[in-house]
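Milestone M4 deliverable, item 7.
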Amino acid sequence: MKKTHIVVLVFIAAAITVLISYTGDLTTYETIASAKEKEGKFVNLIAKLDKSEPMEYDAIKNANYLSFTAVDTLGNKVKVIYHNTKPTDMEKSERLVLKGRMQNNHFECKDILLKCPSKYKDDPNAAGKKAQDAAATEYISADSIKKP
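Output delivered:
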């Protein structure tokens, strides 16, 4: 075999190894019911803060303990325990991505990502109006260019 063939084969083997190593990092979002089936395994939950249930957080007593109830899109609820400081504006967040494990009857959370509410939520036509305004401004500025 030629040396170039050997180099190409080694390169292909390295590329396959890298691709296989990245497939382990692919994550999917779970519901509370499916997370309960995978108890002890690391999962990502998408849920909302259940504002009807009390949130337990006292920055003076223990700043690294937050407990609240999360509800998913199917209506399932679970108690979430987070051993870190409470994220700022958590109550205003539209959705929460909770990374952690189900243990016993609660979700032991390692990380919380907040999904901000859309600025177009109150007016669904606002996005279309903004795009039309931008297009009109561009059209006017293109017409105002003097041609020789």
